Structure formats: structure tokens, C-alpha cells
């Protein structure tokens, strides 16, 4: 199911940069735009700080992490 997307009011330097990037990658501006959108929106979901902490292995003893004066 294909859809169209129109982006208005872009700064001229953004349009120029998109055209230059597309040309350097050997594809159309539309193809470059699709690639940018897909890369930005299909990234793996970022994990929360709590999820990162919970995924850490249980190593060492609690005393290993005691503060030293």
C-alpha cells in the first residue's frame, strides 16, 4: 500500500543538502528521502535506563562496590 508524503516549508539549505546527498548516493531525491525516513523510523527501540540496568549481569559481591574513604 503506497502513500504519498508532501513536506512543505523546508529551508533551502535542507533541500540543497537532500539533493546533494541523493546525487552522491546515485539515486533520486525521492529515493533518498525514503531512505532517510526508513533509517530514522525503523531503528531499534531505545531501552530505558531501568531496562539497561536490569540487563546487567549479576557479578561480584556487594562489598566490591562499597565506598572507600
Please characterize this protein's 3D structure.
This protein is mostly helical. It has a domain of 45 residues. The protein starts with 11 loop residues before the first helix and ends in a 14-residue tail after the last helix. The mean pLDDT is 90.
Q: Proportion of β residues?
A: under 5%
Whole-Å distance between the termini?
Answer: 65 Å
Please bin the fraction of helical residues.
Answer: 40-55%
| Overall mean pLDDT | 90
Number of contiguous helices: 3
| Poorly predicted residue ranges | none
Please report the total strand number as a whole number.
Answer: 0
Class from helix and strand fractions: mainly alpha
SSE series: HHH
Largest sheet: none
Specify the overall morphology.
elongated
> Roughly how many Å is the radius of gyration?
23 Å
Short description:
The longest helix has 13 residues, at 12-24. The protein is built from three helices and no strands. The protein has 69 residues and is mainly alpha-helical.
Pick out its properties.
3 helices; 69 residues; mainly alpha
Write the topology of this structure.
Blueprint: H1 12-24, H2 29-41, H3 49-55
Helix pairs in contact: 1-2
Amino acid at each position: 500500500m503506497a502513500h504519498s508524503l508532501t513536506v512543505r516549508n523546508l529551508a533551502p539549505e535542507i533541500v540543497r543538502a537532500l539533493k546533494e546527498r541523493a546525487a552522491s548516493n546515485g539515486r533520486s531525491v525521492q529515493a533518498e528521502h525514503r531512505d532517510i525516513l526508513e533509517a530514522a523510523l525503523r531503528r531499534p527501540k531505545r531501552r530505558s535506563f531501568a531496562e539497561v540496568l536490569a540487563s546487567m549481569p549479576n557479578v561480584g559481591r556487594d562489598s566490591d562496590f562499597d565506598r572507600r574513604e
